[in-house]
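Handout for the seminar on molecular recognition.
Each group receives one record of this type.
Step one: identify the two inputs.
Step two: read the structure output and locate the region that could contact xanthosine-5'-monophosphate.
Step three: write two sentences on what you found, then compare them with the reference statements printed after the record.
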Amino acid sequence: MSLELEKILVLDFGGQYNQLIARRVRDNNVYAEIKPYTVSIDEIKEADYKGIIFTGGPNSVYDMNSPHYDKEILNLGIPVLGICYGCQLISWMCDGKVENATTSEYGKIEMTVTKNDSLIFKNVPTDSVVWMSHTDYISQAPKCFEITAHSADCPCAAMENVEKNIYAVQFHPEVTHTQFGKDILKNFLFEVCKCAGNWQMEGFIENTVAALKKKIGDKKVVLGLSGGVDSSVAAALLSKAVGKQLTCVFVDQGLMRKDEGDFVEQTFTKLFDMNFVRVNCGEEFVSKLKGITDPEKKRKIIGREFYNVFWNKIREEAEGGFFAQGTIYPDCIESGKGDADKIKTHHNKVKMPDDIKFDDVIEPLCDLFKDEVRKVGELLGIPKELVWRQPFPGPGLGVRIIGEITQDKIKVLQDADAVFRDEIEKSGISQELSQYFAVLPDVKTVGVMGDHRTYDHLIAIRAVTTDDFMTADFAKIPYDVLSRVASRIINEVENVNRVVYDITSKPPGTIEWE
Ligand code: XMP
């Protein structure tokens, strides 16, 4: 990363939209990093930030145990924008009054701007809709601040101290429900902080490739490639930096989607310069899973066997040098909630067995959000099918075959799933769906084909829409598409005579069936 890169600090006070704030800043080609409110003022001074955003948070500023910050931060000469709790905190730090309101303001609220020439409200009309979510409110703005907007229940919806470049808004500009939220953040970045907007993925690639070349020198790098977006983009970046010094280990446990293993192999052997090692262990996996029907036991066996095979191969490849992983920014962010020293544990950060020794671990994507990783992937020439791949669980089709897993069942499910995905893509609705796949329940049903009675597998199809995968709604796929899917699966996939569509939302259902 180049030294001149301008940066915005998102100071995390425990709010739920903190990553969203950083992403929205980056949408403007300005680099933003999130730090917990426990970061020291010296670290902030050293980092040379162009601006600081105080995030929201669930606490009350007048509670002495709530997250606060050294008042000196407002005197560093760095522009500040406070959002929600951050807005109240600025008021509290500057001797304004924050109180508990009798009624909370929650949802879409009409806001009126009273200072139309405020830099932060450039291109924002006098009346617009904002997203509010607060119970405390600023009952009296600090003396050195001017109130610049209000709503019916909130006398201070925005305030500013122009001289010190400190701005604060009670609402959330980062969520799409705030009509002119994008403009407000943009105004802070370009009108107040005077950013140039130099965070571009082309520049990221150039700088990262140069840094990787320098760090790796003539040593070797080993990367575990899953075929998912993150490890694929990490592989492509490393390939560009060091070519054949890179070895990618791809474990195909036979539970991927139809032809997916071959597609991954072809992509990385034909389009990129590297050593590609594929370990095919589908047969062993199925034999280890023989007779196992309990979902948790299946998951455990698949996970354990995968890492056994994977680390054994890595052990063979490790000759000093570096181990690389496709860890991305959300896997690394320290949280501003509670114990701020803890880094979130995540499946992308794998624990290496102690006997495997590398000089260091390289994580070339650890500064990027998923949408940025995808952009880098596209720029590096990774095929769209891989870059825009929908989420796929680590245990693969293992969690989509209910009951015992057999080779025959894997084939039935792969074929049915391929038909479903093909029809969704052809019908042009794939972009509207967050995830869509087939499931093979442990059920056979009676049917009739021609003059014959059949007794065959049932296939369930599942498609959901979601923003965060924590909650999800079943997708309202048009009946004519569902009808084509059902008819093609029954005609083209052997041993299937019935198709059902899963209309369960999450909660109470989960997205996967196991
Ligand atoms: P559930 O089924 O819990 O899934 O609603 C939420 C999202 O997580 C994916 N998923 C997994 N991803 N390893 C993963 O990497 C897993 O074991 C796993 N289980 C579920 C699922 O596909 C959905 O996107």
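Reference statements: The pocket of xanthosine-5'-monophosphate is lined by residues 347, 391, 393-395, 435, 469, 506, 510-512 (CB under 6 Å). The first strand starts at residue 7 and ends at 12.
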